[in-house]
Write a structure and sequence with these properties.
Layout (H helix, E strand, L loop, with lengths): L26 E4 L6 E7 L2 E4 L5 E4 L21 E4 L7 H7 L3 E2 L2 E6 L1
Length: about 110
Amino acid sequence: MYENFVPPEQRRPPDEFHDLTSIVPVRTENLTEDGSIVKLTVQEGSGNFSELTDTVYYKHETRFDNGQLVDLSETRKVADKFIMNDPAYHDYLRTAFLRMRKGEIAFIKVG
């Protein structure tokens, strides 16, 4: 048959890849001095910034630089709970959440 033909049942789901260059942020911020955490704000939030005593609920998905979804079994429609002052959680999330407001939509790039 065709050399590069991939049967439909073996094709990747359309949402597994996302063109990361299509992100048009309202604002871009370096959250660390070395630029290892960058926040690309797509939609502004309202209210006060998060504090270390807050509990934050967030939805996320993890992708490689080429836009491929890391884990297909991730439940991206269910909110996860993040307790800001709990040392068991990743510092990069705490750093990002301290600079976000309720309802803000942003892409966080960790490098």
